[in-house]
Amino acid sequence: MSNFAIDGDELIFIGEFPKNDIEAKVLVLEKWDILRETSVWRGLGGSTCAFCMLHKDCNGCPIFLVTKEKSCYKTPFYEYRVAVYTKSEVVMKLANDMYELVANLVIEEEE
Predict the structure, then answer these.
(1) Which secondary structure element, helix H or strand E, spans residue 98, and what is its range?
(2) Does the pTM exceed 0.90?
(3) Which residues contact 59 (CB under 8 A, 6 or more apart)?
(4) Rounded distance, CA 56 to CA 13, Å?
(5) Which tens digit of pLDDT belongs to each residue from 56-98?
(6) Closest CA to 47 of 8, 91, 101, 11
(7) How far is CA 84 from CA 9, 21, 34, 101, in A?
(8) Nearest in space to 63 (alpha carbons), one of 13, 16, 21
């Protein structure tokens, strides 16, 4: 069962709040897997990002630890948002790029 629902043009998180970054990564990958196949344009940000749910200020977020940029700035996410709003043909490629970025994150198990 999916942790997300699509209501018209909006992606909605309906799953359980993640307990750690490992659970969050699974949810973030699920989100971007969905976005690789659909071009909803609302609900793309923190309300559907499990890393954002755990790291409200980005400190400790696995993406922030790699990019050193808050709000996923300088990741495919920003280009994706513009592409979705403008209905650009690169939407699915950017969603795939963001999926790959998250898939390649190394997250240590918490003790």
Answers:
(1) helix 91-103
(2) no
(3) none
(4) 16
(5) 999 999 999 999 999 999 999 989 988 888 888 888 899 999 9
(6) 11
(7) 11, 27, 14, 19
(8) 21
Q: Give the per-residue pLDDT at 59.
A: 93
Tokens of residue 64, six digits: 């922030």
- Whether 46 and 3 have beta carbons less than 8 Å apart is answered as no
Asked if 53 and 46 touch (Cβ cutoff 8 Å), the reply is yes
CB 71 within 8 A of CB 32: no
Count H helices and E strands in the chain, helices first.
5, 2
Helix-helix angle 91-103:21-35, to 10 degrees: 160
Residue with tokens 């790959």: 100
Q: How far is C-alpha 46 from the chain's CA centre?
A: 8
Place of tokens 């592409």: 83
